[in-house]
Amino acid sequence: MSYIDGGDLKALLDALTAFEKEHPENELLDRMFDNMLEAAIRMVMDGAEGISDHDFALRQLAIFTHNFPERAILYAHLSAALVDRKLFETAIHFTETGLRVAPDNPDLLFNHARCLMEFEDYDTAVTHFKRVLALKPDLPWAYVNMGECFRQLGEPEAAETYLQLARRRYPEFAPAYHNLAMLAMDQGEWEACAHYASTAVRLDPFDSDLRLALGDALLALERWEEALFHLQYGSILDPNDPELYESLSVAYTELGKLHLAEGAAREVLALDPESWRAYGNLAFAYSTRGDHQAVIEACLQALERDPDDVGRQHLYWDLGWSYLQLEQPEQALEATEQALALGEEPELQLNKSLILLALGREEEAADLFHATFDAIDDLKALYGEMEGLEEAHERFG
């Protein structure tokens, strides 16, 4: 049967209803009836394949559930289909209803916990996943989701325990390695992150999220060409993920492919106009061309979009330097002070000394310059990077 129309479905439901009425409270027949329901559901799902109306199977599952409200298997299938469609509010209603019928059904508990994760109720989700594993210990996703819950709860050791269990029990299960990679990323353990992400990519080469995770780890390890390969591959798999283009822009920048970096940043903004990283990457591209007014405009756009503290510091840093280059020392000082409030970087202090010098506050500039200069172990590397540093050093002695 390639399609179950209204008449077919009614006939099927009538036959199942008659069977249920004829054989009440018989354990063996009860299991048989669930098997019949399972077969009917699979027929519905198979019949839905290729149909342009993607909610067809969902509607027919809902009809089955309405007709047999005491059958947990139906709530499990319906809630799973709703979770797959990210209809979590509706899904949790049916999991709760199903759990009143069968409180220890592992599939319903699993679906319920998935919904709780989406609602960020990780503590309760952990409780449900533990019950799932007690009832059905051979479910790899339960281990992985437990790990993710503990990761979100800020308990990395517990998270790793469950993820390593998943990896050892199911060595070909890519999500276990993916989540281990994300856990390592949280802790800045980039070698471990790259190792787990590369294993996951080998097992599941067509997952764009895995390519992004591996690309970001390789960027952190300054393995630019390798990162670029995986990020480009990811953007082919999913051309609508702005995070892939954000990371691509960084990779292009580090490889000196600045026109491509700017193009990738613009791709991000076409997909997500609120991406502060895209504006930050544009600012860097403009700075390499010496277009300081464009740098300022891009930095201000980025700062309006709630960057994290590291990004905010770099944006104020670039903003201060560009104001100085445009001979606007008051604005330069204000932006640099904002950057310093987020971290006392020695190079920023040197920038501030140059700004103070431009403001005619030579004594303050000299004191700050000497204090900062003496605190840096290797200044020679900075001479090639900071305009005006040698000149300031000669002037201040």
Strand content: under 5%
Radius of gyration: 29 Å
Largest sheet data: none
Terminal Cα span: 90 Å
* Number of helices, where a helix is a run of at least 4 consecutive DSSP H or I residues: 23
| Large-scale geometry | elongated
Order of helices and strands: HHHHHHHHHHHHHHHHHHHHHHH
The unreliable regions are 1-7, 380-385
Q: State the helical fraction.
A: over 70%
How many strand segments? 0
**Mean pLDDT over all positions:** 84
Helix/strand-derived category reads mainly alpha
Mind explaining what this structure looks like?
The protein is an all-alpha fold. The longest helix is centred in the N-terminal third of the chain and has 22 residues, at 27-48. Mean pLDDT is 84; it is low at 1-7 and 380-385. It is built from 23 helices and no strands. The chain is elongated, with a radius of gyration of 29 Å. α4 (72-84) packs parallel to α6 (106-118) and α16 (276-288) packs antiparallel against α17. 77% of the residues lie in helices and 0% in strands. It has helices at 6-22, 27-48, 56-67, 72-84, 88-101, 106-118, 122-135, 140-152, 156-169, 174-186, 190-203, 208-220, 224-237, 242-254, 258-271, 276-288, 292-303, 309-325, 329-341, 346-358, 362-375, 380-383, 389-396.
How are the secondary structure elements laid out?
Elements lengths: L5 H17 L4 H22 L7 H12 L4 H13 L3 H14 L4 H13 L3 H14 L4 H13 L3 H14 L4 H13 L3 H14 L4 H13 L3 H14 L4 H13 L3 H14 L4 H13 L3 H12 L5 H17 L3 H13 L4 H13 L3 H14 L4 H4 L5 H8 L1
Helix pairs in contact: 1-2, 2-3, 3-4, 4-5, 4-6, 5-6, 6-7, 7-8, 8-9, 8-10, 9-10, 10-11, 10-12, 11-12, 12-13, 12-14, 13-14, 14-15, 14-16, 15-16, 16-17, 16-18, 17-18, 18-19, 18-20, 19-20, 20-21
